[in-house]
Design brief:
alpha+beta; two-stranded antiparallel ribbon; 25% helix
């Protein structure tokens, strides 16, 4: 069966409409570490248009809110057709998460696949990690 050109797949529509969502922290005032890994991150090279593949690692100590995981998944999938450098992608992700969550501490690492014989790992951090977390 042939898909009509004007029909969008439901996943594409969900990604296009995605917005990061905060959720109340279930344990405010008690510092703890949240770590998430997105091993299938893709974006497009702003120069060549070829795809770049990465594992994005996010770690943070929440304050009043945490990020809802489905919204994070859809947000990250939104980069797949975005022409952006490795450095810009990591810094945009940390900016958006910091703005949304206002965490005590936040780290985003983009571990990009080898491209042109060069491996790139970009790390951005915000705040001071509380002792013991």
């Amino acid at each position: 069966m042939k898909k009509r050109a004007d029909q969008k797949r439901y996943g594409t529509k969900m990604i296009e409409e995605a917005r990061l969502e905060p959720w109340p922290n279930p344990s405010p005032g008690k510092p703890y570490l949240i770590e998430m890994t997105a091993p299938e991150f893709t974006c497009l090279c702003p120069r060549s248009g070829f795809p770049d593949f990465a594992t994005i690692r996010i770690a943070y100590v929440p304050a009043k809110t945490i990020v809802e995981l489905k919204s994070l998944k859809l947000y990250l999938n939104g980069y797949r057709n975005h022409h952006i450098s490795h450095e810009a992608a990591v810094n945009e992700i940390i900016h958006d998460l910091e703005k949304l969550l206002k965490p005590l501490w936040l780290e985003v690492v983009g571990d990009f696949g080898v491209r042109g014989n060069i491996k790139t790992v970009v790390t951005a951090r915000r705040g001071k990690r509380p002792a013991g977390v």
